[in-house]
């Protein structure tokens, strides 16, 4: 079979047998949406089956933090697969990798964190977190305190509970979500404020005030927890406005509501700090981690629980017996080995600092190149999580109507220049979140591609 025949066969199998996530199913099945077969990766680049070498400025799904082809992680995975590809973690079983990784995570996490529970994805980690919190309140004799508050435009996964926590329409519509235990509050999206003259601090105070009104309306003794990403991720890539987390934290403390910091994107360096919680002064009771934990070389997630939560869980098992929650693949040895090697690389390659330095440079260069363009409404970011939001009118910050048509066009124009950016949902927003190893020369390549793509789509 020639290479061309093989490629045609793969495309046919892909379209007739593969149910792709987050994809327009009809367009894909009927050949109207493009497919891409990805063959290899090295550094910040991937290569597809047509031989295109693409600079992946979104690190897969903001997860390949140490970049592609890192020999240290590959070796750790191979060694683990040879020695012991699998054993479970039930009833006190561990491996050198899973035990070592637990210690490494606790050493890097905020001070009050105590233990790590492992899963395979950010979604299952957040499902675990909600179960932990319900169990916690039951053990404390507060069975009514169960509702979870999340934010519109938050992203916390695609499961039944986590899809409910996610505050994006696409993840609710026709799926009978959100579930009744979940309520949503304001997105901390300063660029979308109604009043042009409102300061960031005043906007944060308004978000906190609206949260307090919601808690009072529902009854504080019915609200268990608040979940939020330190900086909004998939819902727009928005760093919090000044004073936001301090104002929210004060309301949560006042009504004895737990905080889950969803650090699936931000954990282990992406924001230029080991954890976003440290950066923004959040005091979480549970931290969710996945993606950067293994740089996505193997699926692994972590629910990192504080000592306060842990003490109650211990009491619970003293009264009730073993903690009845587990996955076959909890603490999978290959994931754990990838995690140990990846976190070592984050230190060895100084990636937290690199995220800071390169992220600042990316923002500065973008602002210089396209900041004054008539359709560029906002350029924002923290570390290597950056967004460009396009508008119909710059002065009034008027969004396009309908929204969501221009972001994909810019992403396509970037791709034509061999740079991958992500058109974010529910907006005209390009997300840039490259591997944290990105060099200054590669930042320049990304900025040039964006600049050219913006003038192609919108004119000069
Ligand atoms: N939480 C956040 C903040 C995320 O960004 C994501 C995925 O993008 C998730 C949770 C869900 O993770 P997964 O896709 O691994 O289930």
- Number of continuous helical runs: 15
Distance between the amino and carboxyl termini: 48 Å
CATH top level of the largest domain is Alpha Beta
What share of residues is helical? 40-55%
Count the strands?
A: 15
Low-confidence stretches: none
Assign the CATH topology of the largest domain: Aspartate Aminotransferase, domain 2
CATH architecture of the largest domain: 3-Layer(aba) Sandwich
Query: Could you describe the largest sheet, including whether it forms a barrel?
Result: 7 strands, mixed
Total discrete domains: 2
Chemical compounds bound to the protein: pyridoxal-5'-phosphate
Percentage of residues in DSSP E strands? 15-25%
Order of helices and strands: HHEEEHHHEHEHEHEHEHEEHHHEEHEEEH
Name of the CATH homologous superfamily of the largest domain: Type I PLP-dependent aspartate aminotransferase-like (Major domain)
Our Rg estimate from Cα atoms comes to 22 Å
The 3D shape can be described as globular
Mean pLDDT: 97
Class derived from helix and strand content: alpha/beta
Assembly state (oligomeric): single chain
Q: Can you describe what's shown?
A:
- This is Aminotransferase class III-fold pyridoxal phosphate-dependent enzyme.
- InterPro entries: Aminotrans_3, Aminotrans_3_PPA_site, PyrdxlP-dep_Trfase, PyrdxlP-dep_Trfase_major, PyrdxlP-dep_Trfase_small.
- GO terms for molecular function: pyridoxal phosphate binding; transaminase activity.
- With 460 residues, the protein is an alpha/beta fold.
- The protein folds into 2 domains: 36-66 and 350-458, Alpha-Beta Complex (Aspartate Aminotransferase, domain 1), CATH 3.90.1150; 72-348, Type I PLP-dependent aspartate aminotransferase-like (Major domain) (Aspartate Aminotransferase, domain 2, 3-Layer(aba) Sandwich).
- The protein contains 15 helices and 15 strands.
- Strands 4-10-9-8-7-5-6 form a 7-stranded mixed beta sheet, with helices on both faces. A 4-stranded mixed beta sheet has the order 1-2-3-13. Strands 11-12-15-14 form a 4-stranded antiparallel beta sheet, covered by helices on one side.
- It starts with a helix and ends with a helix.
- Pyridoxal-5'-phosphate (PLP) is lined by residues 61, 121-123, 126, 155-157, 229, 233-234, 262, 264-265, 290.
């Amino acid at each position: 079979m020639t290479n061309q025949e093989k490629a045609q066969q793969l495309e046919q199998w892909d379209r007739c047998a593969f149910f792709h996530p987050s994809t327009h199913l009809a367009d894909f099945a009927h050949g109207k949406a493009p497919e891409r077969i990805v063959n290899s990766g090295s550094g910040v680049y991937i290569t597809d089956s047509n031989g295109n070498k693409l600079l992946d400025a979104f690190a897969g799904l903001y997860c390949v933090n140490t970049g592609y082809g890192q020999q240290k992680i590959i070796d750790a995975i191979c060694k683990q697969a040879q020695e012991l590809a699998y054993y479970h973690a039930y009833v006190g079983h561990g491996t050198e990798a899973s035990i070592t990784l637990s210690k490494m995570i606790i050493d890097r996490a905020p001070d009050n964190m105590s233990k790590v529970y492992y899963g395979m994805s950010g979604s299952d980690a957040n499902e675990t977190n909600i179960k932990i919190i319900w169990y916690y309140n039951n053990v404390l004799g507060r069975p009514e305190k169960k509702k979870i508050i999340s934010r519109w435009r938050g992203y916390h996964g695609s499961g039944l509970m986590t899809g409910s926590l996610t505050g994006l329409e696409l993840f609710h519509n026709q799926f009978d979500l959100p579930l009744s235990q979940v309520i949503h509050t304001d997105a901390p999206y300063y660029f979308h404020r109604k009043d042009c003259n409102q300061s960031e601090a005043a906007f944060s105070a308004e978000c906190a005030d609206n949260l307090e009104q919601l808690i009072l309306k529902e009854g504080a003794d019915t609200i268990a927890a608040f979940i939020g990403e330190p900086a909004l991720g998939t819902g727009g890539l928005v760093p919090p406005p000044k004073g936001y987390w301090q104002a929210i934290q004060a309301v949560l403390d006042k009504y004895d509501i737990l905080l889950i910091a969803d650090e699936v994107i931000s954990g282990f360096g992406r924001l230029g700090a080991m954890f976003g919680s440290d950066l923004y002064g959040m005091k979480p009771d549970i931290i969710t981690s996945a993606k950067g934990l293994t740089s996505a070389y193997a699926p692994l997630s972590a629910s990192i629980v504080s000592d306060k939560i842990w003490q109650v869980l211990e009491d619970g098992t003293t009264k009730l017996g073993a903690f009845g929650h587990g996955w076959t693949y909890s603490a999978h040895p290959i994931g754990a080995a990838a995690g140990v090697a990846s976190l070592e690389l984050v230190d060895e390659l100084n990636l937290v600092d690199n995220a800071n330095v390169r992220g600042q440079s990316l923002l500065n260069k973008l602002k210089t190149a396209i900041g004054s363009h008539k359709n560029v409404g906002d350029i924002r970011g923290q570390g290597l999580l950056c967004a460009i939001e396009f508008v119909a009118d710059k002065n009034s910050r008027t969004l396009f109507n309908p929204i969501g048509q221009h972001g994909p066009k810019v992403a396509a124009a970037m791709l034509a220049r061999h740079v991958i950016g992500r058109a974010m949902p529910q907006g005209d927003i390009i997300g840039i979140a490259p591997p944290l190893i990105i060099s200054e020369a590669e930042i320049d390549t990304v900025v040039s591609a964006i600049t050219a793509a913006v003038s192609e789509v919108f004119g000069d």
